[in-house]
Amino acid sequence: DVTMTRVARRLRRASATLARAMTSMVHHSATRHAPGANGAVPVVHHASYSKPVMPRGHRFPMTVFQRVHDILREEGVIARGQTNCFVPGRAPSVDELCRAHDEDYVRDVCASALDAKREREIGLPWSDALVERTLMEVSGTMLTVDLAMKVGLCVNTAGGTHHAHRDRGSGFCIVNDLAVSALRAIDSGAVSRVMIIDLDVHQGDGTAAILANEPGVFTFSAHAKSNFPARKQQSTRDVELPRGMTDDAYMAVVAAAMRESLEDFRPELVIYDAGVDVTSNDTLGHLDLTVEGLYRRERMVMDTVLGAGIPLAGVVGGGYSPDIDELASRHAVLHRVAREMFVDHGL
Questions:
Q1: What is the pTM of this model?
Q2: What is residue 211's DSSP assignment?
Q3: Which of 1, 22, 38, 125 has the highest CB neighbour count under 10 A?
Q4: Which residue, 214, 229, 5, 219, is CA-closest to 106?
Q5: What digits encode the pLDDT tens for the residues 266-302?
Q6: CA dihedral 121, 270, 216, 141 (to 10 degrees)
Q7: How many whole angstroms from its chain centre is CA 276?
Q8: Pairwise CA distance, residues 162 & 209, whole Å
Q9: Tell me: the pLDDT tens digits for 99-153?
Q10: What is the mean pLDDT of residues 194-213?
Q11: CB-based contacts of 74: which residues, under 8 Å, 6+ apart?
Q12: In angstroms, rounded to a whole number, what is the distance separating the alpha carbons of residues 54 and 116?
């Protein structure tokens, strides 16, 4: 208990120094270049996203997040000199994490004190690097939200840990960055209504459960009905999709439901989980979208949301393949389309 208290105190001291206001992370990361300068979409990345080392053959593709960053540099989505790439400057505070999670669970995560059963449910080998990655991924999504509210659109190279519940992790997810970031945006007073649009092939069950009694957050999940988790939660709106669904049918169903929900709820911010495990070649997906279908989906989501004047913060969500280059290129569809939309919408 003394160890947990010390960890909490260290987190509080770090947060108090670097986060006295909502915009502190933006200022820390953008001391030379303002977000959106020269018409370049802001991209958020942190080296710890790929820091943990996975055992050979582990199905979680930990190295893909750095590879996404590298591809974006190679293709010019991240500009020369990385002038539009922003790095979160602090870990999330205990108070920020505890808005979405049980305090005892947060302390156990930060102190590496989870028991073997809870570690097995998460499915990742535990290490100090994993704790660092977990916290900085949450900070990365928080920063992505901050920058999106500042300039209209921002995309992360990681994020989308939607299976993390209030008091436990699950399905490679430890802390729910979507829930933490949505509640932080509301608590700051910047917005009063946030919609989380989750198009990962798996239901955002942790997000739905955590935010079930938060009237300021609308959880929208369009996912394969037959896929993990076996026991689904109740989102504000669930769109259950049949196994093997292809591009045209997917676009018709998801676009109609999403537009209707946007019109009904009228959010002031959208956090978008752009999971790419919806494609036919994904090892954990049950849908049959093509890569061109991914491009259509991302253009539909961003054009609809930005066209309504709503800021959008995008995270990569899930994706699984032994071919890291192929998977990273799939994830990078989000960022390539964001570059297009940033210009097309005059952001």
A1: 0.90
A2: T
A3: 22
A4: 5
A5: 999 999 999 999 999 999 889 999 999 999 999 999 9
A6: 50
A7: 12
A8: 10
A9: 999 999 999 999 999 999 999 999 999 999 999 999 999 999 999 999 999 999 9
A10: 96
A11: none
A12: 17
Q: What distance in Å separates the CA atoms of residue 228 and residue 193, rounded to the nearest whole number?
A: 28
**Do 164 and 175 form a contact (C-beta atoms < 8 A)?**
yes
Strand, coil or helix: 54: coil
Whole-number Å distance between alpha carbons of 195 and 148? 14
Tell me how far apart the terminal alpha carbons of the chain are, to the nearest angstrom: 49
pLDDT digits (tens, 9 = 90+) for 207-258: 999 999 999 999 999 999 988 888 899 999 999 999 999 999 999 999 999 9
The encoded tokens of residue 99 equal 């808005």
Closest listed residue to residue 284, CA positions, set 229, 328, 234? 229
Contact by Cβ (8 Å): 331, 160: no
Q: For 3-24, give the secondary structure using H, E and C.
A: HHHHHHHHHHHHHHHHCCCCCH
Region at 346 (left for phi over 0; alpha for psi -120 to 50; beta for the rest): left
Strands (E), the chain: 43-44, 85-86, 153-156, 194-198, 217-224, 237-241, 269-273, 312-315
- Angle at the Cα of 304 from the Cα atoms of 78 and 196, rounded to 5 degrees: 80
Distance CA 286, CA 111 (A): 36
Copy the structure tokens of residue 55. 């055992």
